[in-house]
Design goal:
Layout lengths: L2 H9 L3 E3 L6 H8 L5 H15 L16 H6 L6 H4 L4 E4 L2 H9 L10 E3 L19 E5 L8 H15 L2 E5 L5 H13 L6 E5 L3 H10 L2 E4 L10 H8 L4 E3 L13 E2 L3
Parallel strand pairs: 1-2, 2-3, 4-5, 4-7, 5-6, 7-8, 8-9
């Protein structure tokens, strides 16, 4: 759904505003499914050779290049092709700026980069009688990067000892993954204490923000993003536990920070 935006950015180079630095999916989605496997692999190799000539992929198993996780492990962010054409770039954190700089081939120039913090919504004061004292919530799209297994393992003692509840509030990317998470919760004996809401409308989303005791926003790896869910939690005066790299730049009193 960002393809059209990227096309305009290439056609009319101007100010490039990057929420994520990792744009791998932008390019893989253009290549995967277009032609037979050999054609797709040749296309991705051409792209990498053009934009990242310093990257040695000679011994890489070809089909790995079509897997987004390969780019997480190496790492290649694939922001440079768009960034190199821009007149100026805006990112949301010093961390994002550093990732962008690391994605540039040696000695290649970059346009000026400005850091502009992600906007925070206007604050609202939930009614004190709606705030619950044992409800943990993780907000946002539910996918592999959100470290759900780790959250479930850490939550299990709270559910058993304090009768705490845990909710994942946000759209579900993979039903198969959610089935695995449900099985893990059952195995831990906390199946009745965990729920996955799927997508909720804005009013219901705000109600979860108002009810929660604490938000927990984790990432397995960084895409250079800043978390809109954390901004929403701040607006609702909600404590946050996070390891999101960009959020570690915020003042200590705003977050409970854990190691990336």
């Amino acid at each position: 759904h960002h393809q059209l935006t990227a096309d305009f950015a290439n056609k009319f180079p101007g100010i490039l505003w990057l929420h994520d630095i990792r744009l791998t999916g932008l390019y893989l989605s253009r290549i995967i499914g277009k032609g037979d496997p050999d054609q797709m692999i040749r296309a991705i190799r051409r792209l990498l050779a053009t934009c990242y000539p310093h990257l040695d992929i000679g011994s890489t198993y070809s089909y790995d290049l079509l897997n987004a996780l390969w780019y997480v492990q190496h790492p290649v962010y694939m922001s440079y092709p768009l960034a190199s054409r821009a007149q100026a770039i805006i990112v949301h954190s010093r961390h994002a700026r550093r990732l962008l700089e690391l994605d540039v081939p040696p000695h290649a120039p970059l346009p000026p980069i400005a850091v502009l913090k992600l906007a925070c919504p206007a604050t609202f004061n939930p009614s004190p009688d709606i705030r619950e004292d044992r409800l943990l919530v993780s907000f946002g799209h539910l996918n592999h990067s959100k470290a759900v297994e780790l959250i479930l393992d850490a939550f299990a003692p709270l559910a058993r000892e304090w009768q705490a509840q845990l909710a994942f509030v946000g759209s579900i990317v993979s039903d198969i993954e959610v089935s695995q998470y449900r099985r893990q919760a059952e195995k831990l004996g906390i199946g009745n204490a965990v729920q996955f809401t799927g997508y909720v409308e804005p009013k219901e989303y705000d109600r979860w923000l108002a009810r929660a005791t604490c938000a927990i926003q984790l990432r397995r790896y960084s895409n250079g993003e800043s978390s809109a869910a954390i901004s929403d939690a701040w607006a609702a005066h909600l404590p946050v536990i996070t390891n999101i790299a960009s959020s570690l730049e915020e003042p200590d009193e705003t977050l409970i920070k854990t190691s990336p």
